[in-house]
């Protein structure tokens, strides 16, 4: 059972609240992944382990994002309706919980002097991901009519992070700032704290006095058609989101760009990638909000051309080959281009993540608009939950592959697939990646994160 709150209060406040909520949603993920150039040095992890460092942080954060979504899904499906009329109050509490997590996240980054505490930081990334994800589910539940403002803010947040880091580095160089690895992430986290406080204050002002009688139930079942009929009608947007959201982590950013080049140029490529993701997503959102050309229409009628966006899946699924082949065949021309030509690596990394951004934004925009109902929130909920499940699977598979690769790389004389060709070698690596991925999952919550990373180095 899903619920959406229709309020007659200040419409602008609701818009601003949703925009700020979207702006802060991915802050834990940005610290885990896109600040890795600084965090890996803050915690004295060798550059050679950057891929495993990224994949391990991704593993825990995405698993906890999924767990937060699962908790909201269970809550709205099984908690009696008479209690869910107070979801506005619960969403206020969850917003303030993001403030607490952000403060603790800052503390985890600055404690223990020069060496820092990677384990504390790791667990706060995981806990913050869980809380932010749970808050996301409640926010979308309470203020569904303003969800497009939420969608606009998420890609904008990536652009904001890129602009902040470049601006900070520019002035830090001019002012000869010391200890940049500590300072830049500390300031970024402090800014995130202020953003979560502003969001929580505005959300409280907007929803604290909301009339609970305006809470309108919207079921997973509709009179016009069954849930599975709705699912069939929404199959293309859901399929696009499923692959677009999860598959990107098969190589990005642990392999492309960080494993294929040095840390500094990889960081630059990553910044450009985050900016490109934000820009391309914003373009799709603009089409949805300010034109009649966006994908947020019913594709069976006047906007049927958007069905062809499903074809983006084909190049998107094939592109990781460009990044995997250089690892296994380092003497090939492709390997030389990818590892020695930063522009070549950067171009294809950006193309890959832009495909990801376009597919996710198109899929999310369209999933709820394909049924016989004008707007079907159950498809949005299913789409999100289904896609996050795939993310967890892919992140574990990627981490398993990296652990397998490093094990054999350290023993090149016994390279496992020397005598194998084609499908046999592929399925060997796939099987080993599953095996090591499961091992990585069992080590998700260990007592010494740094040792777990270094033992595979």
UniProtKB/TrEMBL annotation:
Residues annotated as transmembrane: 20-40, 63-83, 89-111, 118-135, 147-172, 184-210, 230-250, 271-293, 305-325, 345-365, 385-402
- What start and end residues bound the annotated signal peptide? none
Q: Which UniProt keywords apply?
A: Membrane, Transmembrane, Transmembrane helix
Q: Does the keyword Nucleus apply?
A: no
Q: Does the keyword Membrane apply?
A: yes
**Can you say what this protein is called?**
Integral membrane protein, putative
List the taxonomic lineage: Eukaryota, Sar, Alveolata, Apicomplexa, Aconoidasida
